[in-house]
UniProtKB/TrEMBL annotation:
Residues 412-608 form the Histidine kinase domain. This is Sensor protein. The chain crosses the membrane at residues 161-184. It is an enzyme of class 2 (transferase). It catalyses: ATP + protein L-histidine = ADP + protein N-phospho-L-histidine. Keywords: ATP-binding, Cell inner membrane, Cell membrane, Kinase, Membrane, Nucleotide-binding, Phosphoprotein, Transferase, Transmembrane, Transmembrane helix, Two-component regulatory system. It comes from Marinobacter maroccanus. Its EC number is 2.7.13.3. It is a multi-pass membrane protein.
Length: 619
């Protein structure tokens, strides 16, 4: 079964090696010590055999001892032989006859039994020892000495072997311990130091340190885990740092945008002009949030499509532009092509501009598709739409109040004229009629009739002008815009003419002020009235066109034209039209057409547009 712990395996191997070494050393030491057990006794006994041999020889050569008897030498020989065959000696002698020590021992036994013992037994006690017997004894003793030397050498060899085994065991143990320390240093201590240094570096937000440990043990796996952890921590830390940086930048942009919205809200409500008040603020907001272009569309009850009122980026001057000195929304075609629009990988956000119960318009915001739009930016844009809704609502309310105030003032003036001047003129006309009924004779008759005719003509003209003024002051724009009022006027005069009157109208919404709309409508009505009453026309067309920055009105008919191809003199209707045109800052021209009929032309620059046509800029 494969171990799950390489580090434990290595430690187990080292400990096992040490244990095996110790066991082998102890076993061999025990075996060697066991093998030399009793060798000292055998050496001592063998050494005593030499002395015993000389004692036996001396006993044989010496005088007989009476007390001992005849068997004394025999007893000594038996005792000596018993010592020669002692178990301590035979135990130290290997049983194998091929072993030198065993052969030497057998030689000693054979020399004893065949030579020395018989010689001692046959020698007469008390007689001198022969040279042969002495030589035999010496040879026997030499053999015993050799046996003792061999026993000593064998014992010393075993002791040397024991020393060698101990030295080898010690050396092997030292090698194992050294290898263990080296392995501990390389595989444990050094990796641990690296891991500790990495942990300290991570605490100091330094994620560049790596362990780079190879192998499959626990510390290597721990080092690999540390490396992966530091990499993930570095990535997470950098992501958090980047997110914090982006969040900080977003908060800074939001703070700047809020300041911008706060300052721009005052301009929106102070200037009462969406274009001048909103475009600079919207362009700064685009730079802060990285969005754009931004367009504002207003909803009109009389129009099925929303009408563009503001844009922050345009190639050409918008039709609703009121300040031809201003080029704030004009950009080059190259810059426009780089903006995030639908054809250039952009996404669109539509925000309603509404008040409770009323939809006033739509705010269209383009932003890069790859970057998206943050929640903070969206909330800021929603706040902007609320501010625009308030500004537009107040502007419309002010316009309605102005129209209502103007209508009330005109009604008051008309009532005062009717109650004072109209009654006075009527009274004077009745008095002139009374004078005509008087019969005045004599030389002053012609003079009186001329004076009465002049008074009647003057009164009729004054009364006619007064009626026109009353009609003007009583005229109201009951419709929501000029286009609808003109359409109703065209329908009225079409019934009077018996044929349809043509109308061409392209004025942008809110081009004219309420007062300018009233005067324009009245001039159109006067021109239509003249064409229907005096021209005997069968075809009448009305054009109300926007030729930026001018408004041009044309009333054309195919009637009999003006007598003498010139403008009529003392035509009170034309005088009133010219007065209205001067009020508008323009001019009315009446002329005959080459193809027949009369053309009445009105041209003026609305007060909301501060340039005349010759100063128009094409920037």
């Amino acid at each position: 079964m494969k171990s799950r712990s390489p580090l434990v395996n290595r430690i187990a191997i080292v400990v096992g090696a040490v244990v095996v070494t110790a066991l082998v050393s102890m076993a061999t030491t025990l075996a060697v010590s066991k093998s030399i057990e009793g060798n000292a006794t055998a050496i001592n006994l063998a050494g005593a055999l030499r002395m015993g041999a000389f004692q036996l020889l001396a006993q044989s050569a010496g005088p007989a001892v009476p007390e001992s008897g005849e068997d004394s030498i025999s007893q000594m020989l038996d005792q000596y032989e018993t010592r020669l065959a002692d178990a301590s000696i035979t135990k130290a002698i290997p049983e194998s006859h091929d072993h030198p020590l065993g052969a030497q021992y057998q030689a000693i036994l054979e020399s004893w039994q065949t030579t020395l013992r018989p010689a001692l037994q046959e020698h007469d006690e008390g007689t001198p020892v022969s040279e042969a017997m002495l030589a035999s004894t010496q040879q026997y003793v030499d053999n015993v000495d050799q046996l003792v030397n061999m026993l000593e050498q064998r014992t010393e060899a075993r002791i040397d072997l024991l020393h060698l085994i101990q030295i080898i065991s010690l050396a092997f143990s030292i090698l194992i311990i050294v290898a263990l320390f080296i392995d501990l240093k390389n595989r444990i201590l050094r990796p641990l130091r690296k891991l500790v240094s990495i942990a300290i570096a991570v605490g100091d937000q330094d994620f560049s340190r790596k362990a780079n440990l190879s192998g499959s043990d626990e510390l290597a796996q721990l080092g690999q885990a540390f490396d992966q952890m530091t990499s993930e921590l570095a990535l997470t830390y950098y992501e958090l740092e980047e997110r914090a940086r982006l969040k900080t930048e977003e908060l800074e942009r939001s703070h700047a945008a809020l300041q911008l919205l706060h300052s721009a809200s005052r301009d929106l409500f102070a200037k009462h002009d969406l274009c001048n008040g909103a475009i600079p603020m919207l362009q700064e907001l685009e730079q802060l949030l990285g969005i754009g272009p931004i367009r504002l569309y207003l909803h009109d009850k009389e129009s099925s499509e929303p009408i563009q009122a503001i844009t922050t980026a345009s190639r050409e001057r918008p039709f609703y532009c009121r300040d031809h000195h201003c080029n704030a929304c004009l950009v080059t075609p190259e810059a426009y092509d780089e903006l995030p629009v639908e054809s250039n990988d952009g996404r669109r956000l539509l925000l309603p501009i509404r008040t409770p119960g009323q939809l006033l318009g739509t705010l269209e915001v383009w932003y890069p598709a790859e970057e998206g739009l943050s929640k903070t930016s969206r909330r800021l844009l929603e706040t902007l739409s609320d501010q625009l809704a308030t500004a537009i609502f107040l502007e419309r309310q002010i316009t309605e109040e102005q129209q209502q105030t103007l209508a009330e003032e005109r009604t008051v003036i008309a009532r005062e004229l009717h109650d004072s001047l109209a009654q006075s003129l009527s009274y004077l006309k009745m008095q002139v009629a009374r004078l005509r009924r008087l019969n005045i004779d004599g030389e002053q008759q012609k003079t009186h009739e001329a004076i009465l005719d002049e008074l009647s003509t003057g009164l009729n003209s004054a009364y006619r002008q007064l009626r026109e003024l009353l009609a003007t002051f009583r005229l109201k724009l009951d419709t929501p815009d000029l286009a609808t009022a003109l359409q109703k006027t065209i329908e009225e005069f079409s019934e009077r003419l018996g044929k349809p009157v043509g109308l061409q109208y392209n004025l942008p919404p809110q081009t004219l002020s309420p007062n300018e709309e009233i005067h324009t409508l009245q001039i159109v009505r006067e021109g239509l009235a003249n064409a229907v009453k005096h021209a005997d026309a069968t075809d009448i067309t009305v054009d109300v066109l926007f030729e930026s920055p001018q408004v041009r009105v044309r009333i054309r008919d195919n009637g009999k034209g003006l007598p003498g191809s010139d403008q009529p003199v003392n035509h009170y209707g034309l005088i009133i039209m010219q007065d209205r045109a001067r009020t508008l800052g323009g001019k009315v021209e009446v002329s005959n057409r080459d193809e027949g009929g009369v053309e009445v032309t009105l041209g003026f620059v609305p007060k909301s547009r501060n340039l005349i046509p010759t100063e128009a800029s094409n920037a």
